[in-house]
Amino acid sequence: MPLFSWSRAWATVAIVLVLALIGFGLHWMLTPEAPVVAQANFRVLLSDQENAIGDFESLEVTITSIRMLRGGEEGGWEVIELEESVVVDLTRLQGLNAQEIWGGIIPEGQYIQVFIYIEDAIGTLKNGETVNVVAPSRNLHISKPFVVTAGDSVVNFIYDVTVVAAGNEQSGIKYILLPQLDQSGADQEFHEVGEGKLTLWVVDTGTPVIPGQNITVVVTFQGDPMPDAQVKVNGVHVGNTSGEAGQEGRISFTVPYDEKLKVKAKIYTALGELEGQLKIE
């Protein structure tokens, strides 16, 4: 083969390589990098300690903002204005049940107080009467220090509240919303209530939920047990809730050896499909 044919061939290869490199470079320069989504390092979850909550069919509390006082020499406030007000029904958050009202990133360091600001609290009693529940000064505050550190760990701050009844039937009963210091803080056990209209509860046995242990979950809708609800545990169907007298809405199962436990319930009713879930870490 003549020498000039080899030269022409190598020249062609060189041109192809150059064009490929140029194309790769343009693609690298023009293709935007995927945004890096920072993981939340702090969450506030609301829970309710049982007092007068048994009087209510529902008790919806509307929260507009959260403020946290920093400790140490710097001091100052970390203010979180919720883009949309968060409405939680306290009747679903009894016992260890808790619901997230905010999750995001706050500066590292020590915090010594947490305030939540309440727009209103409106309850429906079991007799059908609607009442306004008073939140003194329209805010609640708890002094319970916690520390946010660098790394992947997330601080879950449980903000426990309770509703109490004051007065009597003659003078009129007034309901008041108060914070509960003992059951609040970043070191509290909790079961996280997810979205959906069904409420799931773990029957309290006085011991924590651990793998290999048998537990019983109750599925309710507006306070009433729901028999024949389909229940899944970490995606695996474990059966339907009982319809037997005294056991309505209950199902027992063995906790799997997984890092997290997610229990989901679903039932078809005249109101349509109802769902609910509970997460335990």
Structure at a glance:
With 281 residues, this protein is mainly beta. 10% of the residues lie in helices and 50% in strands. The protein has a nine-stranded mixed beta sheet with strand order 10-9-1-4-11-19-18-15-16, with no helix packed on it.
Notes on the structure:
This protein is mainly β and 281 residues long. It folds into three domains: 1-36; 37-190; 194-281, Immunoglobulins (Immunoglobulin-like). The chain contains one helix and 19 strands. The strands form three sheets. Strands 10-9-1-4-11-19-18-15-16 form a nine-stranded mixed β-sheet, with no helix packed on it. Strands 2, 3, 5, 6, 7 and 8 form a six-stranded antiparallel β-sheet that branches. Strands 12, 13, 14 and 17 form a four-stranded antiparallel β-sheet that branches. It is globular. It starts with a helix and ends with a strand. 26% of the residues are buried. The model has no long low-confidence stretch (mean pLDDT 87). This is DUF4382 domain-containing protein. It comes from marine sediment metagenome. Residues 40-179 form the DUF4382 domain. It holds the Pfam family DUF4382.
